[in-house]
Amino acid sequence: MLRTHTAGELRTTHIGQTVTLCGWVQTIRDKGALLWIDLRDRYGVTQLFIEESKTDKNILDTARSLGREFVISATGVVHERQSKNDKIPTGEIEIYISKLEILNAAKLPPFTIEDNTDGGEDIRMKYRYLDLRRAPVRKSLELRHKMAQEVRKYMDTQGFLEVETPVLIKSTPEGARDFVVPSRMNPGEFYALPQSPQTFKQLLMVSGFDRYFQIVKCFRDEDLRADRQPEFTQIDCEMSFITQEDILQTFEGLVKYLFKNVKGLDIATLPRMMYADAMKYYGCDKPDIRFEMKFVELKAPAQDQGIDLVSGKGFSVFDNAETVVGISAKGCAGYTRKQIDELTEWMKRPQIGAKGLIYVRCEEDGSLKSSVDKFYDAEHLKLWAQLFKAEKGDLLLILSGDDMKARKQLSELRLEMGTRLGLRDKDNYACLWVLDFPLLEFGEEESRWFAMHHPFTSPKPEDIALLETDLGAVRANAYDMVINGVEVGGGSIRIFQRELQAKMFGILGFSDQEAKKQFGFLMDAFEYGAPPHGGIAFGFDRLCSLFGGVDSIRDFIAFPKNNAGRDVMIDSPASIDQKQLKELHIAVKAD
Ligand code: ASP
């Protein structure tokens, strides 16, 4: 070993010992008579000390030739520091240098390698290997490591086998586009990279593996969205001879185990919410239940035969709306006109697309003031306030329009108000299961049905008859785990009978031939004794970022891609040369 200790290790108990440390020069302070160097490695920072009058000239010359990020080896005796630094664990000691060696010089880094760096996002991505030297980024990856170890421990104690599935496969439809790899040995043919190991894990169940898991890279060629990575990692799992309840218990267990062992937190039993209720009360299928602020309908769509407390008063916007729905923001009645206008503008941005925002202020004196006073008198507004269970000081914010659109927009507003009211504390974790997703959703553009989860998801047995009559009403044995408004995992009980799977492909618009060509292997396997099975997959990067209390998943990936799907460090994707193209039987450009 080139060193006796790490730069995070030495304490007052080491005083008097001669030690050798290796690492990078973080800072140099040269006061002439006295000189200090902060030496950094993965484990911490240790202060090195030189007193000019007592130090050999060679050492002094070497010390004065150092630059930031030089790699050095320093030997000396551990001393107690005169002025201690209680911000770092090694802050009580320093090393009086008796030997100093430059192991490698370094160019001046393009940004400072400290917790608060002066480097912008782009430059740090280009020099990711330098960014990874910074403690916050390194700590994120340490957390990821710990999470992976704990996942493996838990899954092992539960009898799951970790099995690797191939990366060069054939297209698996999960709703995204595949990345494809041309095959040199099979001209004109392509592999696809897995969007998930879905079909393989189901085949492992047919093989009798009973309980499978894998921490696995998945690839999806999706359009750019903030904080999406084209390659990401899942904790992928599958079990046989189970009910949905078994899956919920097993993986609630996993998440509780992770919170306990990684963060020291005890998580209560996860509440369960039906998809239909999530949409009704929160306008989305991944509600953030760290706070209430549930939706209240003043007018429900006609088919729901709900109440209507808005129509017939001359306000055509509400008269013509399918839905009028709102939230009550606690203690916000004091919002000024300007604040409400600003909020309205925020809702009108194209990302949200609301046409307007109606408000009712529940004033401290008990009166109600609204932006629609012209149409609704005080008595009428009182009915609204009662329905909202609003109290003095609350502000009702109301949207109207097409049911799904209004709910989606209100969901954004709810989250925004939650943030503004400080109700979304990162250290407070609210987990839940969302259950009973619809099996299918209708794609207006393509004018056909799509699997909401994926084509292998089983309908609820009691809804199977509806496959003949009302596809939109069929519920699936599908579930998502949601933490703080983020979908961290999702899965389903699978179809395991050939006929039902074939029927499902038919509903999704596959001809028998296409289904056979793409999924013949799975349907054939179902004829050789497929057990009932089901599973789930967690987004591992996202789970890590939630545990780390950071919004972006990038810091939890050692070498992430940017928002354009590029690795700017290695400059990929890149063109390949003509010879390679030719080998791959891909049309070669004429010179
Ligand atoms: N393969 C699914 C996904 O990636 C998860 C599952 O159904 O187990 O979302």
Number of strands: 22
- The fraction of residues in strands falls at 15-25%
Q: Estimate the helix proportion, in percent.
A: 25-40%
Low-pLDDT residue spans: none
Bound molecules: aspartic acid
Radius of gyration: 30 Å
Main β-sheet: number of strands, strand sense, barrel status?
Answer: 8 strands, mixed
The assigned structural class equals alpha+beta
Overall shape: globular
Counting DSSP H or I runs of 4 or more residues, the number of helices is 16
Tell me the span between the first and last alpha carbons: 55 Å
Average of pLDDT: 95
Q: Going across the biggest sheet, name each strand in turn.
A: 6-9-10-22-21-20-17-11
Structure overview:
This protein has 591 residues and is of the alpha+beta class. Helices cover 28% and strands 24% of the residues. The chain has 16 helices and 22 strands. It has helices spanning 57-65, 121-126, 128-131, 135-157, 198-206, 244-263, 275-282, 316-319, 337-348, 378-388, 403-420, 466-469, 498-507, 512-525, 540-547, 578-583; strands at residues 18-30, 34-41, 44-51, 71-80, 93-104, 161-162, 180-182, 190-192, 211-219, 231-240, 272-274, 296-299, 323-329, 358-362, 368-370, 395-401, 431-435, 440-443, 448-451, 478-483, 486-493, 533-539. Strands 6-9-10-22-21-20-17-11 form an eight-stranded mixed sheet, sandwiched between helices. β20 and β21 form a beta hairpin. The mean pLDDT is 95. The site of aspartic acid has 9 residues, from β21 and β22.
